[in-house]
Design a protein that fits this description.
The protein is of the alpha+beta class and 119 residues long. It has helices spanning 6-10, 21-33, 82-91, 106-109, and strands spanning 12-17, 41-46, 50-55, 60-68, 71-78. The longest helix is centred in the first third of the chain and has 13 residues, at 21-33. Residues 93-119 are annotated as: Disordered.
Length: 119
């Protein structure tokens, strides 16, 4: 029987948000640098798509973001700061729900139905 380590399932977390990539990374830097005590972390590296922060005892937090058709996909990873990563992801405004429109024939889109079409 293989043992399951609960922490390993929480190391990588993700969500979709309505914010842009730049807004997500700015929010991450602000969120983690404003924590107090042992949960504070400071920006160590940053690019156009990620921010890496360093916290208490050298703990690393990485937040990555990319644009998708459904919104901005945000991924957060940390070994010890998993609860803070979850709180950050929950603080982001959710992406709008996808609206699925059925394929409608051209004549139906114009309000015509087979019974109203005249030859």
């Amino acid at each position: 029987m293989q043992a399951s380590h609960q922490q390993s399932r929480r190391q990588l977390q993700d969500t979709l948000t309505a914010l842009s990539v730049a807004e997500v990374l700015s929010a991450a830097a602000q969120f983690f640098t404003q924590r107090s005590g042992i949960y504070a972390a400071f920006v160590e590296k940053q690019s156009a798509t990620h921010v890496a922060l360093r916290g208490q005892g050298g703990e690393e937090i990485v937040i990555g973001a990319r644009e998708t058709p459904a919104g901005t996909a945000v991924t957060g990873s940390s070994y010890l700061f998993d609860q803070q990563v979850a709180r950050f992801l929950e603080s982001l405004p959710p992406a709008p729900p996808e609206v699925v429109t059925p394929d409608v024939p051209d004549d139906a889109a114009a309000g015509e139905t087979p019974s109203t079409i005249t030859p």
